[in-house]
Amino acid sequence: xxxxxxxxxxxxxxxxxxxxxxxxxxxxxxxxxxxxxxxxxxxxxxxxxxxxxxxxxxxxxxxxxxxxxxxxxxxxxxxxxxxxxxxxxxxxxxxxxxxxxxxxxxxxxxxxxxxxxxxxxxxxxxxxxxxxxxxxxxxxxxxxxxxxxxxxxxxxxxxxxxxxxxxxxxxxxxxxxxxxxxxxxxxxxxxxxxxxxxxxxxxxxxxxxxxxxxxxxxxxxxxxxxxxxxxxxxxxxxxxxxxxxxxxxxxxxxxxxxxxxxxxxxxxxxxxxxxxxxxxxxxxxxxxxxxxxxxxxxxxxxxxxxxxxxxxxxxxxxxxxxxxxxxxxxxxxxxxxxxxxxxxxxxxxxxxxxxxxxxxxxxx
Amino acid sequence: xxxxxxxxxxxxxxxxxxxxxxxxxxxxxxxxxxxxxxxxxxxxxxxxxxxxxxxxxxxxxxxxxxxxxxxxxxxxxxxxxxxxxxxxxxxxxxxxxxxxxxxxxxxxxxxxxxxxxxxxxxxxxxx
Lengths: 364, 127
Prior knowledge:
The complex is a heterodimer. Chain A is an alpha+beta fold. In chain A, 21% of the residues lie in helices and 33% in strands. The longest helix of chain A is centred in the middle third of the chain and has 14 residues. Chain A is globular, with a radius of gyration of 21 Å. Chain A starts with 6 loop residues before the first helix and ends in an 11-residue tail after the last strand. Chain B is α+β, with helices and mostly antiparallel strands. At the A-B interface, α2 of A face β4 of B.
């Protein structure tokens, strides 16, 4: 089992730890998952996401290489831009989802811990000679600082004004004396940043940000993976292995916007074929009454016909709903359609509702 | 861990507390703490009869659904309606406002066979 450099801090803080993607990670702190979620929505949450991987790509031909692997349009990105993309296989299903940063002379690609080795193998398999690919995951630490007061806190701690960075851009600055690549990105639906910096500084920056929050009267707390999941779920963001995977086409889970059909990319032909044939499943969000709809639960039409499966479901603290993301027969995907989710053998009422449940603040 | 010395306990972490001619059932403080944030509680219909150790309801936390078992055989006389709107009451007041159901025991003497507070504390500490 891998541990992050904040492992001792999490344990000392009383976190319940559990394995995630090969790392022993904090699931909840004594605040509890619901209060951690709410705290991030009202002030500032800190997330240890060191399990995420970072790969740097550069050299002649790097632009074309990254563009062919990434589903999203990326060649129009200016230096410091950051953009969401999928990494597809030839079948058009999702190996991983990526955040791609265009730096001055390289591409900085953030990958999921659980897919890192497969991603690297895929990159290496397609990499032309002359393109260099370096895995910085072990030497780079990653912390997310998220919430409506995150930028205010960071402006007080950073050499440059983080508030001057537009959403989905990045910059390099010193935060509490630690040199950081700062991306104005995140996975919560709140404003905030993701910080990349030397792993040696992990404890200093983490505890420094918590201390700065106390000093400036900005409520700041560590948030575990359980709340990270409910924050991303409400905000309509996918988690690989649930809404997207190698068994799901991105068009089924509403990710056509992350696929640029005006360029060539691996998986494009398969997706065009699928589009011509028509989708057999579609991802919808269901508002459920009478229990928590969990992964794997069956979805039925109002008259009891099996029409799909829950891929993720939970209690959503901000909207106070029990909700599911489910892949279902597109004939039942219309907003307002009354369905059932089978919970402990009984069909519970479910209705197709608008996604996302919680509109990210930067989209309002 | 808070513990109600007047209650008696099942090894599966439910308590029974005598209240006149019925018993109040909830889950122990130890159990609510282990479950984490409780977000949904499913309770039986009043009038339903259960055997000793039979599942009478479900408590769903953020991470999982757990059955709750009746510590003694009996018939449900009341369910805690406040939990529908506020299931976290079980976390905040497991031995108070977060009770689950009341029941009339088939054999009230079964109460004496349950674990007393000290014995339950010893059992719970082993986990």
